[in-house]
Amino acid sequence: MSSLWLLAVLAIKAVFANNEQFELYKNAKPGHMELDPKYGHIFDTEFFQNCQDNRIAGGGWESEPNSRPYQVGIYVPTANSGVSFCGGSIIGPQAFLTAAHCLDISNGDPITIHLGAHHMPPTSADEGLRTLTTSHFLLHPEWNAATIQNDIAIIFTNLDYIVQNEYIQYIPLASNPSESYLGKEAVVSGWGLQGDDHSAISPVLREVKSTIISNLACRMAYMGQVQRHHICLSGEERRSTCRGDSGGPLVVDGEQVGVVSFGTSAGCEVGWPPAFARVTTYIDWINQNVEFFRKHQRIMEQ
């Protein structure tokens, strides 16, 4: 086991020649808000105290390499020279979608985004890897960190264009606000923790499938915290998102319907519904800002 770990470390170092950057990536803090003290009033864990001994191993399963070509890994520099890790999705030639809470902790230094990767941090095995850095992002104007409302953000490239290939592709966004997706099977992917007994992000992309439940049921689970601009999975069979999955895509029939936002601080495997920002609520805001940025970039290039 130790020899396999050594080979993995050497492969990562081959990609990240800068040892300082390698150490930052290796020790990146999985982006999730449930364990942040400032959100403690929202995620009360007393209800779950009797559930912990009965949990089963979760974390979904490893994705087929390059089967989720829209998925990206995002490293965000934070205060005190730290780094936070989140997921995201490619939504166009110059734009990515992620969660607002992933970016509002940024210290202003460039964000690093890995496209076309299966491993995280990427290794030499990731043949389709492309890495971009950018400082351009936009939080939703009504993002509220105190209540976790409107937890959605767009990241824009600098002057780089994302060219689609077998490893890297845009994902269509759901656009019908009247569609509830109730009862539909959805898949969510990411490099988040594989379970409550893990402390580091998964070295490979993983995914889980579950069923979308009503907002009413999810609202009851979170004592009113869930609103119309959320969408939730059932969490049955302890299938859920975990720390480090934040910002990643929730997909139904090839369209992105949600962005990973939050779950319960009691753990990823207690069978509680994970909550997502509902894409259809924000589709006009997304399209308007992506188009505005595109036109601005054209002017800059002239």
UniProtKB/TrEMBL annotation:
<comment type="similarity">
    <text>Belongs to the peptidase S1 family.</text>
</comment>
<dbReference type="InterPro" id="IPR043504">
    <property type="entry name" value="Peptidase_S1_PA_chymotrypsin"/>
</dbReference>
<dbReference type="GO" id="GO:0004252">
    <property type="term" value="F:serine-type endopeptidase activity"/>
</dbReference>
<keyword id="KW-0720">Serine protease</keyword>
<feature type="domain" description="Peptidase S1">
    <location>
        <begin position="56"/>
        <end position="291"/>
    </location>
</feature>
<dbReference type="InterPro" id="IPR050430">
    <property type="entry name" value="Peptidase_S1"/>
</dbReference>
<keyword id="KW-0645">Protease</keyword>
<dbReference type="InterPro" id="IPR033116">
    <property type="entry name" value="TRYPSIN_SER"/>
</dbReference>
<dbReference type="Pfam" id="PF00089">
    <property type="entry name" value="Trypsin"/>
</dbReference>
<dbReference type="InterPro" id="IPR001314">
    <property type="entry name" value="Peptidase_S1A"/>
</dbReference>
<feature type="signal peptide">
    <location>
        <begin position="1"/>
        <end position="17"/>
    </location>
</feature>
<keyword id="KW-1015">Disulfide bond</keyword>
<dbReference type="InterPro" id="IPR018114">
    <property type="entry name" value="TRYPSIN_HIS"/>
</dbReference>
<dbReference type="GO" id="GO:0005576">
    <property type="term" value="C:extracellular region"/>
</dbReference>
<protein>
    <recommendedName>
        <fullName>Peptidase S1 domain-containing protein</fullName>
    </recommendedName>
</protein>
<dbReference type="InterPro" id="IPR001254">
    <property type="entry name" value="Trypsin_dom"/>
</dbReference>
<keyword id="KW-0732">Signal</keyword>
<keyword id="KW-0378">Hydrolase</keyword>
<dbReference type="GO" id="GO:0006508">
    <property type="term" value="P:proteolysis"/>
</dbReference>
<dbReference type="InterPro" id="IPR009003">
    <property type="entry name" value="Peptidase_S1_PA"/>
</dbReference>
